[in-house]
Write a structure and sequence with these properties.
Blueprint (H helix, E strand, L loop, with lengths): L7 E4 L2 E2 L2 H4 L9 E8 L2 E3 L1 H14 L8 H15 L4 E8 L8 E7 L9 E7 L13 H12 L4 E5 L5 E4 L3 E5 L4 E4 L7 H6 L5 E4 L11 E6 L2 E8 L2 E2 L4 H12 L3 E3 L1
Parallel strand pairs: 7-8, 7-14, 11-12
Antiparallel strand pairs: 1-2, 1-6, 3-4, 3-5, 4-16, 5-6, 8-9, 10-11, 10-13, 13-14, 14-15
Length: 259
Amino acid sequence: MTRTETTYTEIDGMPATESALSAPVLSGPGHFTAMQVRDGRVRGLALHLDRLDAATREYLGRTGLDGERVRAEIRQALAASGRDDASVRVHVHWPDGDSRATLKVTVRGPQVAATGPLRLISVPYVRHTPRIKHLDGAVQNRALDEAETRGADEALLTTPEGLVTEGAITNIAFWDGEHVIWPDAPCLRGMTMALLEPRLPSVRRVVTLGDLPGCRAAFVTNSRGISPVGRVDDVEFPVAQDFMTGVMAAYEAVPWDVV
Protein backbone atom coordinates (compact mmCIF):
# COMPACT_ATOMS: atom_id res chain seq x y z
CA MET A 1 0.00 0.00 0.00
CA THR A 2 1.37 3.41 -0.98
CA ARG A 3 1.28 6.08 1.71
CA THR A 4 1.95 9.76 1.25
CA GLU A 5 4.65 10.94 3.64
CA THR A 6 4.68 14.56 4.71
CA THR A 7 8.13 16.13 4.53
CA TYR A 8 9.05 19.35 6.28
CA THR A 9 11.97 21.30 4.81
CA GLU A 10 14.04 24.26 5.93
CA ILE A 11 16.77 26.06 4.03
CA ASP A 12 19.34 27.94 6.10
CA GLY A 13 17.04 27.80 9.09
CA MET A 14 13.96 29.15 7.31
CA PRO A 15 10.86 27.24 6.13
CA ALA A 16 11.40 26.35 2.47
CA THR A 17 9.29 28.19 -0.08
CA GLU A 18 8.63 26.95 -3.61
CA SER A 19 10.99 29.54 -5.02
CA ALA A 20 13.73 28.65 -2.53
CA LEU A 21 13.44 24.95 -3.40
CA SER A 22 13.88 25.76 -7.09
CA ALA A 23 16.85 28.08 -6.55
CA PRO A 24 19.89 27.30 -8.73
CA VAL A 25 22.07 26.71 -5.67
CA LEU A 26 20.14 23.51 -4.86
CA SER A 27 20.63 22.09 -8.35
CA GLY A 28 24.41 22.39 -8.24
CA PRO A 29 26.98 20.02 -6.72
CA GLY A 30 26.21 18.93 -3.20
CA HIS A 31 26.44 16.18 -0.63
CA PHE A 32 24.35 14.97 2.28
CA THR A 33 23.96 12.73 5.27
CA ALA A 34 20.88 10.80 6.41
CA MET A 35 20.04 9.87 9.97
CA GLN A 36 17.35 8.43 12.17
CA VAL A 37 16.36 10.58 15.14
CA ARG A 38 14.65 9.18 18.21
CA ASP A 39 13.62 11.46 21.07
CA GLY A 40 15.91 14.16 19.65
CA ARG A 41 18.91 11.83 19.62
CA VAL A 42 21.06 10.26 16.87
CA ARG A 43 23.45 7.32 16.83
CA GLY A 44 26.93 8.42 15.77
CA LEU A 45 26.17 12.14 15.57
CA ALA A 46 29.88 13.03 15.52
CA LEU A 47 30.38 10.74 12.52
CA HIS A 48 27.62 12.54 10.63
CA LEU A 49 29.15 15.94 11.39
CA ASP A 50 32.62 14.71 10.40
CA ARG A 51 31.20 13.33 7.14
CA LEU A 52 29.64 16.68 6.24
CA ASP A 53 32.78 18.60 7.14
CA ALA A 54 35.11 16.28 5.21
CA ALA A 55 32.90 16.21 2.10
CA THR A 56 32.59 20.00 2.15
CA ARG A 57 36.39 20.20 2.07
CA GLU A 58 37.01 17.46 -0.50
CA TYR A 59 33.97 17.51 -2.76
CA LEU A 60 33.08 21.20 -2.68
CA GLY A 61 36.62 22.49 -2.18
CA ARG A 62 35.76 24.66 0.83
CA THR A 63 37.32 25.15 4.24
CA GLY A 64 34.86 22.96 6.13
CA LEU A 65 31.46 23.10 7.80
CA ASP A 66 30.56 24.26 11.29
CA GLY A 67 29.10 21.26 13.12
CA GLU A 68 27.35 23.45 15.69
CA ARG A 69 25.49 25.23 12.90
CA VAL A 70 24.39 21.86 11.51
CA ARG A 71 23.14 20.73 14.92
CA ALA A 72 21.27 23.98 15.49
CA GLU A 73 19.51 23.78 12.13
CA ILE A 74 18.54 20.14 12.71
CA ARG A 75 17.12 21.02 16.14
CA GLN A 76 15.18 23.92 14.69
CA ALA A 77 13.73 21.86 11.85
CA LEU A 78 12.72 19.07 14.24
CA ALA A 79 10.99 21.54 16.54
CA ALA A 80 9.17 23.23 13.65
CA SER A 81 8.06 19.87 12.24
CA GLY A 82 6.68 18.78 15.62
CA ARG A 83 8.64 15.52 15.50
CA ASP A 84 10.95 14.07 18.14
CA ASP A 85 11.24 10.82 16.16
CA ALA A 86 12.11 11.36 12.51
CA SER A 87 14.17 10.63 9.43
CA VAL A 88 16.43 13.63 8.81
CA ARG A 89 18.60 14.57 5.86
CA VAL A 90 21.08 17.43 5.74
CA HIS A 91 22.05 18.59 2.24
CA VAL A 92 25.06 20.85 1.76
CA HIS A 93 25.66 23.17 -1.20
CA TRP A 94 28.26 25.94 -1.43
CA PRO A 95 28.32 27.79 -4.77
CA ASP A 96 31.14 30.05 -5.85
CA GLY A 97 30.83 33.55 -4.47
CA ASP A 98 28.82 32.65 -1.38
CA SER A 99 30.35 33.33 2.02
CA ARG A 100 28.94 30.21 3.63
CA ALA A 101 27.25 26.91 2.78
CA THR A 102 23.57 26.55 2.04
CA LEU A 103 22.02 23.87 4.26
CA LYS A 104 18.77 22.12 3.43
CA VAL A 105 17.31 20.05 6.26
CA THR A 106 14.40 17.71 5.55
CA VAL A 107 12.35 15.99 8.23
CA ARG A 108 9.86 13.20 7.74
CA GLY A 109 8.55 10.26 9.71
CA PRO A 110 10.92 7.71 11.24
CA GLN A 111 11.92 4.68 9.20
CA VAL A 112 13.22 1.25 10.15
CA ALA A 113 15.18 -1.35 8.22
CA ALA A 114 13.33 -4.14 6.45
CA THR A 115 13.18 -7.32 8.50
CA GLY A 116 14.24 -9.36 5.48
CA PRO A 117 15.69 -11.64 4.40
CA LEU A 118 16.38 -9.49 1.35
CA ARG A 119 17.06 -10.56 -2.21
CA LEU A 120 19.89 -8.76 -4.03
CA ILE A 121 20.76 -8.70 -7.72
CA SER A 122 24.32 -7.87 -8.78
CA VAL A 123 24.66 -4.90 -11.13
CA PRO A 124 28.04 -3.89 -12.64
CA TYR A 125 28.46 -0.27 -11.58
CA VAL A 126 30.95 1.68 -9.45
CA ARG A 127 29.85 5.08 -8.18
CA HIS A 128 32.12 8.00 -9.00
CA THR A 129 33.92 9.34 -5.92
CA PRO A 130 32.32 6.51 -3.93
CA ARG A 131 33.64 7.67 -0.56
CA ILE A 132 31.43 10.79 -0.80
CA LYS A 133 27.67 10.71 -0.20
CA HIS A 134 27.07 13.11 -3.06
CA LEU A 135 23.79 14.01 -4.75
CA ASP A 136 24.72 12.76 -8.21
CA GLY A 137 23.01 9.40 -7.94
CA ALA A 138 21.16 9.00 -11.25
CA VAL A 139 23.02 5.88 -12.41
CA GLN A 140 22.95 4.49 -8.89
CA ASN A 141 19.17 4.94 -8.83
CA ARG A 142 18.88 3.18 -12.18
CA ALA A 143 20.76 0.22 -10.71
CA LEU A 144 18.25 0.09 -7.87
CA ASP A 145 15.36 0.39 -10.32
CA GLU A 146 16.82 -2.48 -12.35
CA ALA A 147 17.05 -4.67 -9.27
CA GLU A 148 13.46 -3.90 -8.28
CA THR A 149 12.25 -4.57 -11.82
CA ARG A 150 13.90 -7.99 -11.58
CA GLY A 151 12.08 -8.71 -8.32
CA ALA A 152 14.92 -7.89 -5.92
CA ASP A 153 15.01 -5.60 -2.89
CA GLU A 154 18.40 -3.99 -3.54
CA ALA A 155 21.19 -3.85 -6.11
CA LEU A 156 24.62 -5.19 -5.21
CA LEU A 157 27.12 -3.02 -7.06
CA THR A 158 30.21 -4.67 -8.51
CA THR A 159 33.11 -3.81 -10.75
CA PRO A 160 32.96 -5.20 -14.30
CA GLU A 161 35.27 -7.98 -13.08
CA GLY A 162 32.84 -9.05 -10.37
CA LEU A 163 34.48 -7.37 -7.36
CA VAL A 164 31.80 -6.63 -4.75
CA THR A 165 31.78 -3.00 -3.60
CA GLU A 166 28.51 -1.97 -1.90
CA GLY A 167 24.76 -1.88 -2.32
CA ALA A 168 23.00 0.88 -4.23
CA ILE A 169 21.79 2.34 -0.91
CA THR A 170 23.54 0.05 1.57
CA ASN A 171 26.81 -1.44 2.71
CA ILE A 172 27.08 -5.21 2.71
CA ALA A 173 28.93 -7.60 5.01
CA PHE A 174 29.43 -11.37 4.96
CA TRP A 175 29.99 -13.97 7.69
CA ASP A 176 32.46 -16.81 7.24
CA GLY A 177 31.73 -18.44 10.59
CA GLU A 178 34.49 -16.54 12.35
CA HIS A 179 34.75 -13.01 10.94
CA VAL A 180 32.43 -10.33 9.61
CA ILE A 181 33.90 -9.53 6.18
CA TRP A 182 33.49 -6.02 4.82
CA PRO A 183 34.44 -5.83 1.13
CA ASP A 184 37.82 -4.18 0.65
CA ALA A 185 36.74 -2.08 -2.32
CA PRO A 186 35.86 1.52 -3.20
CA CYS A 187 32.61 2.34 -1.38
CA LEU A 188 30.84 4.79 0.87
CA ARG A 189 31.54 3.98 4.52
CA GLY A 190 28.00 4.33 5.80
CA MET A 191 27.29 5.43 9.35
CA THR A 192 25.83 2.10 10.46
CA MET A 193 28.82 0.28 8.98
CA ALA A 194 31.17 2.72 10.73
CA LEU A 195 29.45 2.09 14.06
CA LEU A 196 29.34 -1.70 13.68
CA GLU A 197 32.76 -2.46 12.23
CA PRO A 198 34.76 -1.84 15.44
CA ARG A 199 32.11 -3.60 17.56
CA LEU A 200 32.20 -6.88 15.64
CA PRO A 201 35.01 -9.35 14.78
CA SER A 202 35.53 -7.49 11.52
CA VAL A 203 38.05 -7.84 8.72
CA ARG A 204 38.43 -6.08 5.37
CA ARG A 205 38.85 -8.51 2.52
CA VAL A 206 38.46 -8.52 -1.25
CA VAL A 207 35.16 -10.25 -2.08
CA THR A 208 34.12 -11.37 -5.55
CA LEU A 209 30.82 -12.79 -6.73
CA GLY A 210 32.62 -16.11 -7.01
CA ASP A 211 33.39 -16.04 -3.28
CA LEU A 212 29.76 -15.78 -2.17
CA PRO A 213 28.94 -19.52 -2.09
CA GLY A 214 31.61 -19.90 0.60
CA CYS A 215 29.94 -17.40 2.96
CA ARG A 216 27.59 -18.55 5.69
CA ALA A 217 25.48 -15.40 6.05
CA ALA A 218 25.21 -11.81 4.83
CA PHE A 219 23.54 -8.60 5.89
CA VAL A 220 23.20 -5.02 4.67
CA THR A 221 23.28 -1.76 6.59
CA ASN A 222 22.18 1.81 5.98
CA SER A 223 20.80 4.73 7.94
CA ARG A 224 17.62 2.79 8.69
CA GLY A 225 19.50 -0.07 10.37
CA ILE A 226 20.37 -3.67 9.51
CA SER A 227 18.67 -6.32 7.36
CA PRO A 228 19.68 -9.94 6.76
CA VAL A 229 20.30 -11.04 3.17
CA GLY A 230 18.72 -14.26 1.98
CA ARG A 231 19.96 -14.34 -1.59
CA VAL A 232 22.40 -12.68 -4.00
CA ASP A 233 21.69 -13.66 -7.61
CA ASP A 234 21.48 -17.47 -7.42
CA VAL A 235 23.42 -17.81 -4.16
CA GLU A 236 21.25 -18.43 -1.12
CA PHE A 237 22.22 -17.54 2.44
CA PRO A 238 20.49 -19.11 5.42
CA VAL A 239 19.52 -16.56 8.04
CA ALA A 240 21.98 -17.37 10.85
CA GLN A 241 19.74 -16.31 13.70
CA ASP A 242 22.32 -16.45 16.51
CA PHE A 243 24.78 -14.48 14.39
CA MET A 244 22.20 -11.84 13.44
CA THR A 245 21.10 -11.55 17.08
CA GLY A 246 24.72 -10.71 17.96
CA VAL A 247 24.96 -8.15 15.16
CA MET A 248 21.74 -6.48 16.27
CA ALA A 249 22.87 -6.48 19.91
CA ALA A 250 26.10 -4.73 18.94
CA TYR A 251 24.11 -2.08 17.10
CA GLU A 252 21.57 -1.61 19.89
CA ALA A 253 24.47 -1.02 22.32
CA VAL A 254 25.58 2.08 20.37
CA PRO A 255 24.72 5.16 22.47
CA TRP A 256 22.37 7.88 21.22
CA ASP A 257 23.74 11.43 21.08
CA VAL A 258 21.68 14.55 21.74
CA VAL A 259 21.44 16.66 18.59
